[in-house]
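Materials and Methods. Structural model of Replication protein. The 368-residue sequence of Replication protein from uncultured prokaryote was retrieved and submitted for structure prediction as follows.
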Amino acid sequence: MALRVERFALQAVARDILPKTRTALCLRARIKGSEGVGVWKCEKHGTAHYSGLQTCGSVWSCPICAAKITERRRLEVQDAINQHRQAGGEVQLLTLTTPHGRGDDLGQLIERQSKALQAFYRDFTVRAVLSEMGELGRIRAFEVTHGRKGTNNGWHPHYHFLQFCQVKADAAQLMDWRTRLYLRWDACCQRAGLGSPSFAHGIDLQDGRKADRYISKWGLEDELTRGHTKKGRAGGETPFDLLRAVLADKEDRQAAALFLEFSQCFKGKRQLSWSNGLKARFNQAEKDDQEIASEAVEDAQLLGLLTVQQWRDVLKVKARATVLELAAAGGWPSVSRFLWFIDGAAEGVQFDADMLSEARALLLGDGI
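The predicted structure was written out as tokens:
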């Protein structure tokens, strides 16, 4: 539940940075025509959730939608890997990155990388190497970090490709492929105006064991899940690390500005891209992010409905996560007691943080 509390807190930060976006309304504004805000509980998982509220479906800007979407994507990818291996196939992990510096504009950097990637996968030598691998298709994951607190090298967008291959390669063969691919990647990057990536940092090619470790990091157990959401390492901050920085220090204007830049540049882009025919090959349904974010949880029961006034009270005291905590732990009775406690908040009744924290603790401990 601690992760959910953090997600709601980070979403509130994102709302302040992106006030005119759907993320600012996500799980706050009611769906037109809804009678109230439903509170549901799934006994199987011991979790609670809302219904009757708008969702933004943004995997990039919304910590709450991102958690739900990335977990579904992880399951899709893992299922494809399992099917491929059961059929005798191999999975490899190819990572491509480019030189980057403190003054780089993220939008321009992404545009140049896109040109380099298109040229790379059209290249005759690259196609020959992929043919030697017996590549049937690939899944591309797009990630970005910022080095303001570490390397000070600015934005670092990079790509991971899960390659579904038919040929099992040893270390020597992987190094041969990596070397040949690097030469073409270097040429494509230079033509796109990106400079020359080093062999050590510009490209990496690993066998299935590395692919397994990478996929395992996509689960909900890894902070806010995957890529731009997880906590950065070695000084690099992910976009949601930037939200954490603003949550910890509202005066961190640099972090807020960087998150705004990231959100604008990544809007509309896909978190994962499957090559043509690969989803059909593994019988994976085509669902967009918004569909996943709006899906109802199976085997959940409606505990009760919050009236419009009660929901306004909840929003006023910033208790969206608290209501779900209470619903999961104590059911509707605990929620009702909390709603009684905060009654009138939207009309001007004052509640300080200590009062709300004490009420939450008492209710979670069944002290009221």
